[in-house]
Every structure is written in C-alpha cells, then in structure tokens.
Amino acid sequence: MEEVRIDKWMWATRIFKTRTIAAEACRKNRIMIAHIPVKPSRMVKVGDVIQIRKPPITYSFKVLALTERRMGAKLVAGYLENVTTPDQYELIEMNRISGFVNRARGLGRPTKKERRELEQFTGPDMPDGFDFEFDFEENGQTD
Asked: For residues 36 and 26, is the Cβ–Cβ distance under 8 A?
C-alpha cells in the first residue's frame, strides 16, 4: 500500500471519530497539505505533513505509515508523529488563562459562574469620585 485516502487515514489514526466528520473537515478547508486545502479523496503518502485546523490552533502531523483500518489508541504512535509547533499550544494556554469564554453567538446565556468571572474580569463600572456630568456655559449662562 503506497497511498491511502486522507479521510480514511485520519479516521483510522483516530484524529477524527468518524470518517464522515473527517470528510466534512476536508470539505470545509480545515485539512491542508503544504498549506493547500485538500479534498477527502486526496491520497496521502508516507512523509506528508498534514495540517488540521481546529480553532483556535492548527495541529500538524507527519505520516509515518499508512493504514485503512481503525486501530487502538496505543498503536496510533506508529502511524503518525505530532509535529505541531509549541506556539500553537501556547494559544490554547492563553485562551485557558484569559478566563474569557469564547461563546459563539446564539449558543445560549453564560452560566452563573461564567457571568461572575466575566464581571470580575471587566471590573467595576466606574471608580468612585469620577463623574461624567459637565457644566457647559453657553453665552455666559449656566444650567
């Protein structure tokens, strides 16, 4: 076996839970080889580096061996090598540390805990002693 469909290989190596999800990711241009989006029918070879965009980061995997059969998680290491750059993992850490909930619009209200964290993050409305009311003088008259 010299080549395998990319959607089959990603399913077999447990990158995606189902082959349908892997194919859908290809159709949405989330799977790239050499920074070029690929179709689910694209054939992969040993040595190819596959970039998988799962926001907020882009994972990179080097193909070490080919397979069309799904395998146990312990065997996956023999078929791919994770070559994701450390700066991509820093993005995950920054999102986790920031405490800001990246909720897609329309997916519901924040939980009570999330609301409290958001209020704590944004701080009080205005510090004491600061007032936005100004006295304007027009033609020498004050209101």
From this structure: no
